[in-house]
Each structure stands twice: as C-alpha cells, then as structure tokens.
Amino acid sequence: MLMPPLYTYLGLLLFLIFSLQTPSCSAANDTLAAAQVLAVGDKLVSRNGKFALGFYKPALPAGSESKYGSITSPGWYLAIWFNKIPVCTTVWVANRERPITDREIKLTRLKFSQDGSSLAVIISHATESIVWSTLIANRTTQAKNSMNTSAILLDSGNLVIESLPDHVYLWQSFDDPTDLALPGAKFGWNKVTGLQRTGTSRKNLIDPGLGSYSVKLNSRGLEAQGSNCRLLQKYTVGLLE
Predict the structure, then answer these.
(1) Same domain, 15 and 40
(2) CA 213 to CA 203: how far, in whole Å?
(3) pLDDT tens digits, 139-163
C-alpha cells in the first residue's frame, strides 16, 4: 500500500510548531469597533506591526509560474498574514470554502451583527448575503453584555471579539485554526468545553480551501487523517488543556 509522501507528515508537524452605512476602518488600527466595517483595501494591523487582517486574493510568487503551471486563485478571502515580509503568507483564513468573486469583492464588508456579539463577512446586493460568520464556530461563553464589543488583532496574530468592560473573549481565531498554529495558540481537545481545534491542510499553493489531510489531538493522542477519514498516523502525546 502506498504511503503519503514524507512532506505530508512534516507539514502536519509544522502545524503544531507554528501552531446601514457605517464608517470604514483605519488602515493603521488594530481594532474594529462595532460601528465600523472593513472593506477591501482596509486592514487591521497588530500593535507590534507583525500581523495584518484584511481581504486578499492569493497569487503565485513572482517567477514561479513556470514551476507550478497555470494555477489560478478561486477568489478573495478574509485572512490574517505576516505584515513584514514581501511575499503574502497567511496564518489564518476565514472563508476557506466560500471564496469571494471579483464581482462581489467591492460589495463585501466585514461587520458586526446588530447585537455586537459576532462578526460576519457580508455581500450587500439587494439583500445581504453571509459568506462567513463567527456564529458558526462560536463555542465560547457569551458575555452578559455583548453590545459593547470590538474586534482586536492581537500581537500574537490572534483575532478576538472582546466584550467590554469585562474583557471577555466571545470568539477568537485561535479556536478556529486553518493549516498552521502560531506560537501561543492552543491545539487539540478542550475536555471542559468540548471544543476540538483541528488543523486541515490547504488544497494547493494558492487555494486555501480544505485539503486532503487533517490533524487533531484527543485523549488517544495526535491523529493524522486523510480525506477518506483513514488514520494515517498516530502519535502518543499529552493533552494541551
């Protein structure tokens, strides 16, 4: 039986290591207030300048077209990337399975829900269409007063929805990992809340959609699986909670 190439397992291990019209957001700010929206061309930048959040369209690095062939991007994504390196390298992608088309992107905004408890990527045509929302993945305890909230891109690269004045995180991107985990991010199963943080590979170099491999940590250890849910490898490690 053929086994997946070595880089498949190396990639999985690297995941653990790195493991109403409203005003537009300022490009030099780390915070999106409940009354603001984020449009294409806008971005949040962490205070240390290391990370940025915004809408981006993946592209092949200059000069690599001959190596990878005619790979094209399926569309635009809300993502967090390293802000200080020349090649756009993402660390988190929101709408992995629902790319935004070129025609839609000018009508697309990241905005808060009316009660301020969640963020959503909205396309505004005659009616609003939700592309992605934190409500889908929100498993944290809701704050008593969720009206006074803001979204903050922390120095760690973690995007959080924070409720004030109690500073409760209603949601955080570290709880919804993509294909890698940054330092400081927890990974695996939270035995108290039942939250399972699972990493899933990308489809290819410029398509961040869900790929063929995933890795998760549970009470039995670290498990890597293929697209057919077949267990590829199992490691015995401790829980992270």
Answers:
(1) no
(2) 9
(3) 444 444 446 899 999 999 999 999 8
